[in-house]
Amino acid sequence: MESAKDIFSYRKYWAHRFGPAPFLPTTRDEMDRLGWDSCDIILVTGDAYVDHPSFGMAIVGRLLEAQGFRVGIIAQPEWVTAQPFTVLGKPNLFFGVTAGNMDSMVNRYTADRRLRHNDSYTPNDEGGRRPDRAVIVYSQRCREAYKATPIVIGGIEASLRRIAHYDYWSDKVRRSILVDSRADLLVYGNAERAIVAVAHRLGKGEAVESIRDIRGTAFLCDGVPEGWTVIAADSIDQPVSTGPSRGAEPTAVRLPGFDLVKDDPVLYAHASRLLHQESNPGNARALVQRHGDKELWLNPPPIPLATAEMDGVYALPYGRAPHPAYGEARIPAWEMIRFSVAIMRGCFGGCSFCSITEHEGRIIQSRSEASILAEIEEIRDKVKGFTGVISDLGGPTANMYRMACKDKAIESICRRPSCVYPDICKNLGTDHDPLIHLYRQARGLPGVKKVLVASGLRYDLAVNSPAYVKELVTHHVGGYLKIAPEHTEAGPLSKMMKPGIGSYDRFKALFDKYATEAGKKYYLIPYFIAAHPGTTDEDMMNLALWLKKNGYRADQVQTFLPSPMSLSAAMYHSERNPLRPIRRSGSEVVFTAKGLKQRRLHKAFLRYHDAENWPVLREALKQMGRADLIGPGKHQLVPNWQPAGTGLAGGEGARAGRKHGTQKFFTQHTTQSRRPGLARRPKKGS
């Protein structure tokens, strides 16, 4: 893999003389107090401004400030007119636009396309403070405010919509967000390396339209740049070479164009497969996709940050609090992470429904132990309300810290979508000892009473290290531990790229053993997905029987939501399996629950214990020829009687859905946020 310039090695921009701000300014009054006459860069975000490294705009803002730029923030602006986008004046270099830590459509709508009335990233959990497709709307208002100012878009919404993509909410394939936003440049993935390079080049007077060679960026152009060889892969009948370019010219892969994939689901699945094959920074080639009379050009993914760079990012002078303008308002996302520490980025799990790997990459980027311990001490000493408990020491996956391919040469040519599916790769280093040592050092710090692990755990890795499971259960579980088997049946699990339920059983045996040895009553909280592509009614019935047998009664359930650009979304839209070669004839057809009635049935199976769901489950079981599962027996799924006043909402349980917030827990798989799900403690004998 090629080397990359250290993000902290650039010569600082002249404005570094102003020094760091207590909070990045959000008003002209704040700018005046800092002695600024203007901002060099203005960041526009759909989230409230919380100056903490779990919020993307805070990281980008503080990093650009450390480069010497004067950075302002416009958080959750009104978007009806351009006036709110002028409050800090015209930026000297560019606007940076993001929807926030979540895709705005995932944030605002449930899996049933119903409007949410809350927003965890907004003061007092208030809904409606960001528009649908926020990146597009914000970019258009920035353009109206200052027509000639460059606009750079990024964050998870831009990243996962960078090519022609299936959009669940409009049920169609949409153009790249770069086209609809009319932005000048798109940065995808973790954007530190790209955004620093862009800022310095613009700061030196370079025109934005000439910035065409930075990894992790996308742009529109009239034609293929001179000197490039393009592999025509826009036909599903034509195989694509996976080898590197052998000639002097660099090689790009042509994806089927927007006008082709928007009307051809099978060709869309082919394009999705190609995109995901070109995701390893070590061997990925540039991609090009036609949009009308323009070419959408995607440079290869960014080189992951080195440990020293990660340490530098997390050592920036964050205020570690919401901006003072919010006063005493509650920001739920902040309350959840205020005492947590991210120890790494990325995920090599490759789950087909998840956007973490797509956004952050498969290569794990870990912080040093010293950096992590220093942040814990800073929380202890500076964050208001700290009681001695670190609420989470984790990341996208809690136990991938410092794990990597044993051979860098192999890593640089690998095109596997997952390092752990269908089995753990023999070249993957899975040593948990560095994490065990980190846990011991963290809980030994003065003033720290407890260090919890609340991030999702990859249990198929953990079972190979009983010492880690013992350490975790003995010292770092707070009563419940969440893990995500997602299903019990082989059909849907194979489409999710998740291990069989046997791995869960082995982990549970270890978990229960060490909990008993520690004299603790701890419980595993398994999460499951309803209606994922490849899931039949029988699969959901068998999952419900497993849940009842094991005494689980889920309060919050997850109905599959096709997140933009994911492989699962391609399955949902095309009803083909892009994990395997796509052909006009011979491709694997994937059964997909699309109708609202069937999707609600699948969700009802997850909540088999809710009387609201019993009528629809009884009807379904009869149609499936499984009326034997209706009755009072322990081996039966639902009773043959109905409590008074229940089951009147068609069996789906609308009241229960409103009560329990059925879609909240989906966000743990689709964003960088770590929002815990909830479940009742299993009842004895249930």
Task: List strands and helices in order, with pairings.
Layout (H helix, E strand, L loop, with lengths): L27 H7 L6 E5 L4 E2 L4 H11 L4 E5 L18 E4 L6 H5 L25 H12 L5 E3 L1 H5 L5 E3 L4 E3 L2 H5 L3 E3 L4 H12 L13 E5 L7 E4 L18 E5 L2 H4 L3 H13 L8 E6 L2 E5 L8 H8 L6 E2 L9 H6 L2 E3 L1 E2 L10 H5 L4 E2 L2 H14 L6 E2 L1 E3 L9 E2 L2 H6 L14 E2 L3 H11 L6 E2 L7 H4 L3 H10 L4 E7 L3 H7 L4 H17 L5 E8 L6 H13 L8 E2 L7 H8 L21 H11 L7 H10 L30 H7 L6 H4 L16
Parallel strand pairs: 1-3, 1-4, 4-5, 5-8, 10-11, 11-12, 15-19, 18-22, 23-24, 24-25
Antiparallel strand pairs: 2-14, 6-7, 8-9, 9-13, 12-13, 16-17, 20-21
Helix pairs in contact: 2-7, 9-21, 15-17, 17-19, 20-22
Describe the structure.
This protein has 686 residues and is an alpha/beta fold. Among the domains are: 1-209 and 310-332; 339-368 and 385-474, Transcription Regulator spoIIAA (2-Layer Sandwich). 31% of the residues lie in helices and 13% in strands. It is built from 25 helices and 25 strands. The strands form eight sheets. Strands 3-1-4-5-8-9-13-12-11-10 form a ten-stranded mixed beta sheet, with helices on both faces. A three-stranded parallel beta sheet has the order 23-24-25. A two-stranded antiparallel ribbon has the order 2-14. A hairpin with a 2-residue loop joins strand 12 and strand 13. The chain is globular. Mean pLDDT is 91; it is low at 649-686.
